[in-house]
């Protein structure tokens, strides 16, 4: 029965987009579980994090570590937190990720760990940046053109 439950859990975590995780709320976010899809995101295998050869905090770009820590600390009174930050994968590629998690407390109200998932949002961030650059370029063209523009709402 336990093997069947474990197989069901693995199937569930492997079929969701992104990376499922469980970690401690310590300075390194010590990993207790990472779904195998962590290798697609970071280039590192789950066992590297679980056996303490590597800590996920090592993948987070240094300028985002204080932001990440403060966002999760500010969320401790709530059940759920969400934060976006950049990581560097094994090959040196920079990626934007969105992390959503939940604080898990024991019966006495003591925080025991965090459960959540991390999703690669690099493509979305790149599209947003492209749109922003295009809009800035169009605004520059409009402002430097010697013509008038108007807008009409037909609804």
Q: Which stretches of 5+ consecutive residues score pLDDT under 50?
A: none
Oligomer: single chain
Computed structural class: alpha+beta
Residues in β-strands, percent: 25-35%
Reading side by side through the largest sheet, how are the strands ordered? 2-1-5-4-3
Task: Report the average pLDDT across residues.
Answer: 84
SSE ordering: HEEHHHEEEH
Radius of gyration: 21 Å
Major sheet, described briefly? 5 strands, antiparallel
DSSP helical segment count:
5
Question: How many runs of DSSP E, i.e. beta strands?
Answer: 5
Estimate the helix proportion, in percent. 25-40%
Topology:
Blueprint: H1 2-14, E1 19-23, E2 31-34, H2 38-42, H3 46-50, H4 65-74, E3 80-88, E4 94-105, E5 111-120, H5 122-144
Antiparallel strand pairs: 1-2, 1-5, 3-4, 4-5
Brief summary:
The chain has 155 residues and is an alpha+beta fold. It has five helices and five strands, in the order αββαααβββα. It is elongated, with a radius of gyration of 21 Å.
Describe this structure in words.
The structure is a single chain. This protein is of the alpha+beta class. The chain has five helices and five strands. It has helices at 2-14, 38-42, 46-50, 65-74, 122-144, and strands at residues 19-23, 31-34, 80-88, 94-105, 111-120. A five-stranded antiparallel beta sheet has the order 2-1-5-4-3, sandwiched between helices. The longest helix has 23 residues, at 122-144. The protein is elongated and about 75 Å long. The model has no long low-confidence stretch (mean pLDDT 84).
């Amino acid at each position: 029965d336990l093997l069947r439950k474990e197989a069901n859990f693995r199937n569930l975590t492997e079929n969701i987009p992104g990376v499922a995780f469980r970690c401690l709320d310590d300075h390194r976010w010590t990993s207790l579980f990472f779904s195998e899809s962590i290798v697609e995101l970071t280039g590192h295998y789950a066992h590297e994090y679980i056996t303490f050869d590597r800590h996920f905090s090592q993948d987070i770009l240094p300028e985002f570590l204080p932001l990440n820590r403060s966002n999760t600390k500010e969320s401790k009174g709530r059940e759920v937190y969400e934060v976006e930050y950049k990581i560097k994968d094994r090959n040196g590629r920079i990626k934007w990720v969105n992390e959503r998690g939940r604080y898990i407390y024991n019966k006495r109200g003591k925080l025991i760990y965090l459960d959540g998932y991390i999703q690669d949002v690099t493509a979305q961030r790149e599209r947003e940046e492209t749109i922003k650059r295009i809009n800035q370029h169009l605004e520059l063209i409009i402002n430097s053109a010697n013509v008038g523009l108007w807008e009409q709402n037909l609804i």
